[in-house]
Amino acid sequence: MEEQIAELTAKIAELEASSGWATTIAVESFYWWCTGLMVIIHAGFLAYEMGASRKKNVLASGIKNILAFAFIIPTFFFIGWWIYLAFPGGLVPDFEAGAGGVPWSAAMGPNLADNATGIFWAAFALFAATTASIFSGAVIERIRLSAFLILAITLGSVVWILAASWAWHGDGWLLTQFGWHDFGAAGCVHMVAGFFALGVLINLGPRIGKYNADGSANDLSPHNLPLAVLGLMLIIVGFFGFLGGCIIYNGTDQWTTIFGNPATLSAIAFNTLMCFAGGIIAAWVLTRDPFWMMSGALAGIFGAAPGLDLYYPPLAFLLGIGGATAAVFGARFIEKVLRVDDAVGAVAVHGIAGLFGVVAFGLFASGYPNIGDAPDTSLIGQLVGAAAMFAVGFLPGYLLSLLLKVLGVLRIPESAEVIGMDIAKVPVSAYPEGTEAAMPA
Amino acid sequence: MGSPITTWDSVEAYFTGFGGATTMIVFLLAVAVTAGAIYLGHRHEEEAYSKLKEK
């Protein structure tokens, strides 16, 4: 009998060990594939930014977009992960908490005792690259590449991740002091990137020919609208990886959000598809323009992103409509009233729709309990967070681009803008002989 | 650089050079190359736009 019990105990121990290992592999695999899907976001941004450019700038826009991705990855390794771990309390770093994120620490490389850091770092690096790509589209056709890279690195490897430390971290001060909730990063990714872009656009100025002497705006048509629309759809595909990366899978009996409350992928599936559809329908009704229909899909997701884990699906649908409506009217306001030339509507789609989503959560989802001592979700918490996200996005974008402008290195010379950046500095041409004449300049 | 371990038993961090001074040297080199690439991009732009002005 004792022998049988001992044998059974050994078998149970063996089973437990193998189940623990299977869980570790499953956690790693889940985030690995989320990260892979997020790369599709960048395929989408590349297509949409090149499509939205005029023919004379198409390759320069592509180069800029690809380099944003490339420079974010190492710089996010150099400093980004440390910022995320060290700054949840505000602007004063916690060196002890940040120790695991310094780039020479044991966690920041191959380590058989750590299956988590690399895979989470990778997902966050892709979020960082997303913020840089959001900004990239807004400033096409007149920004200097080197100035853009400095700004993109600042946004992707410093600014957004500081915001994420405050607003997307289990110990972030917005959660612990105000009960902030933002499942899908409408604040730290979309508001921050959108309003960072606005700050830069104010100093960068409009493209030549965008505005007439009386202040009215001209339409500088994309050279390949179908490519831009396809790119936007690819961004949506990639967003399923992005949203997968927003949920925590730690091998316990239930998923949690980054704020610690339990959640299910089913909830995210219901609400993501509903707000996506609402965004398209609203933009179609308001514009009849396929570019804006797909931009509306994105804005719809951001309009409901903070509560994708909590909303009743028809409410997510309505918030998708609200997000897209805010983006469409916001873009018109930015173009016609503020006279800011945002080539792809990034400020409206990401900044304004993200703001709508953050505030809407406070209106429709207050009173949910948080884990531990953090206060319940509330409108006040969302408003405080919205103000913080606006400030942490807009101010660095405005101030750094102002400095670059004063130094005379923000914008390309007028002659290059007129002739086109591809001819001015790209050693190859986008289209073979004979096809260019058929396209708009 | 090279291997910081002599056996796979009870290994934790095992990336090349871990625990030695070369890790920091390689890190600083990577930072310098990244910054240098941006500088080279800036110089290329300056040259390209200068040539355009001369035309």
Largest beta sheet of chain A, briefly? 3 strands, antiparallel
Residue windows where pLDDT falls under 50 for at least 5 positions of chain A? none
**What's the total count of β strands of chain A?**
3
| Overall morphology of chain B | rod-shaped
Strand tally of chain B is: 0
Spell out the helices and strands of chain A N to C.
HHHHHHHHEEEHHHHHHH
How many helices of chain A? The count is 15
Chain oligomer state: heterodimer
Which protein chains make the most extensive interface, counting residues with beta carbons within 8 Å of the other chain's beta carbons? A-B, 28 and 23 residues
How far the N terminus sits from the C terminus of chain B, by CA atoms, comes to 51 Å
Run of helices and strands of chain B: H
Q: What is the global morphology of chain A?
A: globular
Sheet with most strands of chain B: none
Q: Can you give the helix content of chain A as a percent range?
A: 55-70%
Report mean pLDDT of chain B, rounded to a whole number: 93
- The chain-level mean pLDDT of chain A equals 94
- Can you count the helices of chain B? 1
Order of strands across the widest beta sheet of chain A? 1-2-3
Distance between the termini of chain A: 87 Å
Return the structural class of chain A. mainly alpha
3D architecture notes:
The complex is a heterodimer of chains A (441) and B (55). Chain A has 15 helices and three strands. With 441 residues, chain A is mostly helical. In chain A, helix 4 (117-138) crosses helix 5 (145-167) and helix 10 (290-304) packs parallel to helix 12 (346-364). With 55 residues, chain B is an all-alpha fold. Chain B has one helix at residues 21-54.
In short:
With 441 residues, chain A is an all-alpha fold. Chain A is built from 15 helices and 3 strands.
